[in-house]
Model the fold of this input.
Amino acid sequence: ILENVADKYMQNKLTAPSAKELYFKAVLLFLANGDEVGADQALKRYLNNDPTFFQTRQQKFVQSIIASVKEQNLGLFSNE
Done:
């Protein structure tokens, strides 16, 4: 649902800046459900949909979580 709303937000210049927050939450939901592959794929899709999401704190945060989960290394996440 969050992804669909964010995609609609991207269609309007006034609401487009709010889309990245919804994309961020959607990636967190993938991770909360234990789907790191889905989270990684979704993040790539969201970055394609909203280039302003790239290099934001939220994007860097979820990227580090995904990397930590993939490598099963909590130290990667805690170092960032």
User: Anything to note?
Assistant: Residues 55 and 74 are 22 Å apart (CA to CA).
